[in-house]
Write a structure and sequence with these properties.
two-stranded antiparallel ribbon; single chain; about 290 residues; about 40% helix; alpha+beta; 11 strands; Jelly Rolls
């Protein structure tokens, strides 16, 4: 019995995921810095003719790559346990416990979004669902379990203005009426030909559909690309834009949180404007 109590006390004293996760993230970052420095040192040694030293440094840098992958995997698993632990407290009887769990999940930021989305799909507690929705900051999960989200960052091949009609106007939910609006993006030149709009969304998803609010001179969208987590740009749709105020297209199910809208602004005379873009997709599974 004494041994059992001692073992239980030791287990309770061990750090949990809330302590482990930031430590793992910090460890991976430190090893990345060490790897990068050793790669630079290997290049310097090679330039100086110290071949054996260069080989040794390069070999150790490759070993660090393996350690970094391992630690990142441990951090990801630890994050999943941490989010599960905190979500379990969102409907606690004690209000302070519920608030504390919400605050800690909020402090984790965007890294917690994929786990929160998966938890939201199966969560039975109305209180927990409400708090998760608050944490997701405008990302919604529809009745079919699909993730729906609006862009949070935007850049473009050109902009009509630095603020009004800039790419940043595409961020967030629709806020422009049909017709010319300074709260939408427009290219620098009317009928200038090829243009692109690159958008980032809060969470990576298996992209299945896109909705684009074209508030002025619609019809110029010719292709949609998804930028994968591996940095590769993949063509998810190509075809004809029918010219309505809301352009909708089914996408091939590539995984990513960034898309590129490719336009041909010569297709219709006058400036084309885009007000908002909604990306719809399936949550990414581990």
């Amino acid at each position: 019995m004494i041994k059992m109590l001692a073992a239980t006390a030791l287990l309770l004293a061990l750090p949990g995921p809330e302590e482990d996760y930031p430590a793992l993230v910090a460890s991976a970052a430190a090893k990345e810095r060490q790897r990068d420095e050793e790669r630079r040192a290997a290049h310097r040694a090679l330039d100086e003719g110290a071949y054996d030293r260069a080989v040794g440094l390069a070999t150790h840098a490759r070993e660090l790559d393996g350690e970094i992958v391992r630690i990142r995997g441990e951090a990801r698993a630890c994050l999943g346990r941490l989010v599960a632990q905190l979500v379990g407290k969102l409907d606690d009887d004690d209000f302070a416990v519920r608030e504390g769990a919400s605050d800690r999940l909020r402090a984790l930021g965007s890294v917690a979004i994929p786990d929160l989305l998966r938890r939201r799909r199966t969560e039975k507690s109305a209180e927990s669902r409400y708090r998760i929705d608050e944490l997701l900051r405008g990302i919604t999960v529809d009745d079919a379990g699909r993730v729906r989200q609006w862009a949070v960052e935007a850049t473009a091949s050109s902009e009509y203005g630095a603020t009004d009609w800039s790419a940043s106007q595409v961020v967030g939910e629709p806020d422009s009426q049909e017709g010319d609006s300074r709260t939408a993006w427009a290219a620098k030149e009317a009928d200038g030909g090829p243009e692109w709009l690159r958008l980032k969304f809060p969470a990576a998803v298996k992209a299945t559909k896109i909705r684009i609010h074209e508030n002025l001179t619609p019809g110029g969208v010719v292709a949609i690309d998804v930028l994968g987590e591996d940095g590769v740009r993949r063509r998810a749709w190509e075809g004809e834009d029918g010219g309505g105020a809301w352009f909708e297209a089914e996408l091939q199910g590539f995984v990513g949180r960034e898309i590129v809208i490719v336009l041909d602004t010569k297709k219709h005379a006058g400036w084309e404007e885009i007000d908002a873009v909604e990306l719809i997709g399936e949550p990414v599974q581990d």
